[in-house]
Amino acid sequence: MMTQHSVEKIGGTSMAATSTLFDNVLIAGRSGAELYGRIFVVSAYAGMTDLLLEHKKSGEPGLYAHFARGDAAWRDALDRVSGAMRERNAQMFVRPESREEADRFVHERAESLRRCLDDLDRLRAHGRFSLKDQLITVREMLAGFGEAHSAHSTAVLLRDRGVNAVFVDLTVWSEDDRVSLDQRIRDALEPIDLATQMPIVTGYAGCEGGMVRRYARGYSEMTFSRLAVVTGASRAIIHKEFHLSSADPKLVGGERARKIGRTNYDVADQLANLGMEAIHPRAGRGLRQSEIPLCVRNTFDRDDEGTLICGDYRSDEPRVEIVTGVQELHALQFFEQDMVGEKGYDSRILEVLDRRGAWIVSKASNANTITHYLSGSSETVAKAVSDLEEAFPGAIVTTRPCAMAAVIGSDISAPGLVSRALDALEQADIAVLALQHQIRNVDVQFVIEREDFERAVRTLHAALVEDSTAGLRRRAAA
Ligand SMILES: Nc1ncnc2c1ncn2[C@@H]1O[C@H](COP(=O)(O)OP(=O)(O)O)[C@@H](O)[C@H]1O
Ligand SMILES: N[C@@H](CC(=O)OP(=O)(O)O)C(=O)O
């Protein structure tokens, strides 16, 4: 396999801006051999996975949620998704034959799903079968439909423009042939000549353990990351709707948010941990270990090189690079006076949190209290609380809704940074419920009330990023 190639992921929002995507990324003025040496991994068009599974943010049920509940509305939900896909085709295709081909593809996949779900429905109607295990498979199959559609139509559109694009469908698998994600990728890419062919790979890949089950939403970045590692890419690029910015442009305003020029994987990990979609939490690892630089680019800003993320970058002077956070957080406090001087409580709490699938954003402890800051649903947290109460009858376990604003940078080791942040929050009348600052000097976390979240991000951004006097001196080496 060619070594000087890039692996590039296109997010759902960028996919939906199809003509811009062609003009700025897929073709972008290239011709002949310049078009090749690039592997694209695509997400479903924005909104499709929401219709197939459930809405990513609001949780509004999609096809999967209806089917899982045994609600006949799944049939309408399937029609809605395939309708939305055909509508998208209608907007994208100029050549009638290509549009027909794309519509036929959607129709065939939708009908095959319908047959499968019908069979399961019939089985379920006997009342003697539990579909629990099958539902996991259904969820995987449905998710894959979104990326099958987007990759297939992108390949057809590219061929219409004279590009030798190849649709690489990783969404279909056979239960007798469950292989690892890496193996799946290796097998699919092996016959492709990157010098003359442009693979358009589905962001969903049928693999051991299931893509959605293992990696949750945003899974396309895992396919992307492993593809870059397995094929030995010289660079990995994520094409997004926005520049990776000093804060969410939707929150602080596009004119205030600054583009991040460079940063490191440590910062990317912190962002991923907070649920910011800069890069999937588990995607960064492989790229960092293989020393593949990652570039995050804005699809709508063709000439801008984007943000370069490497393993070894450190800002020239200490500086806050990003202000972000989590608005829906739960502080789970475990108070037990017998804990003083005893070990082992931690690991038993973690066991419960792991079993309940809670996402730990941060944690803190003192002599008799361990606090975990968890993101995720209130139900998950409530279940964890009741498990803990049962396992530790002497402990007092409480939860409290809260939010977290975090300031992050590859080097924030500046004296006065925390006090400046606290001053700004106080002036804005925002109470700080708890504070965390690690010796590692990559982030400071401020735990606050949920209703203060957006204001806290704006306040910290104004004080530590927008204020030009915020350039901070490096703390003198001890
Ligand atoms: N610091 C930040 N820089 C850029 N975008 C951010 C930041 N924080 C949050 N976001 C948000 O991340 C979201 C996801 O980005 P997007 O490019 O739409 O993903 P995708 O292309 O994968 O659908 C956007 O809605 C944007 O508002
Ligand atoms: N389409 C899938 C996978 C994905 O990675 O999407 P995006 O790149 O748009 O976050 C999802 O919504 O989860």
From TrEMBL:
Q: Name one GO biological process term.
A: lysine biosynthetic process via diaminopimelate
Annotated Aspartokinase ACT domain residues: 412-463
Give GO cellular component annotations, separated by semicolons.
Answer: cytosol
> What reaction is this protein's catalytic activity?
L-aspartate + ATP = 4-phospho-L-aspartate + ADP
Q: Transmembrane ranges?
A: none
Q: Which family does it belong to?
A: Belongs to the aspartokinase family.
The protein's name in its UniProt record:
Aspartokinase
Native species of this protein? Answer: Croceibacterium soli
